[in-house]
């Protein structure tokens, strides 16, 4: 079965940032989370979505011919 939730530590490792950064993203509502018992968990799908959000997507239609 695929992992659905990640701890703050696992999220920080996945995004290659500090746990404090994950906590800041959660506090600013930029990264959703939920409580499971006493732990704060982040949906793995939200981590993927967050990682892709700042990544520009370059398609053939977006390219210009300025390099001539």
Total count of strands: 3
Which value, in Å, is the CA radius of gyration?
A: 16 Å
- What is the architecture at the second tier of CATH? Orthogonal Bundle
What's the helical proportion of residues?
25-40%
What best-fitting shape do the alpha-carbon axes yield? globular
Return the domain count: 1
Output the CATH class name.
Mainly Alpha
CATH fold name: Arc Repressor Mutant, subunit A
> How big a fraction of the residues is strand?
15-25%
Q: Walk across the major sheet and give the strand order.
A: 1-3-2
Structural class: alpha+beta
H and E order? EHHEEH
Number of helices: 3
Ends: how far apart? Answer: 51 Å
Throw out a few tags for this protein.
single chain, 68 residues, alpha+beta, Arc Repressor Mutant, subunit A, 16% strand
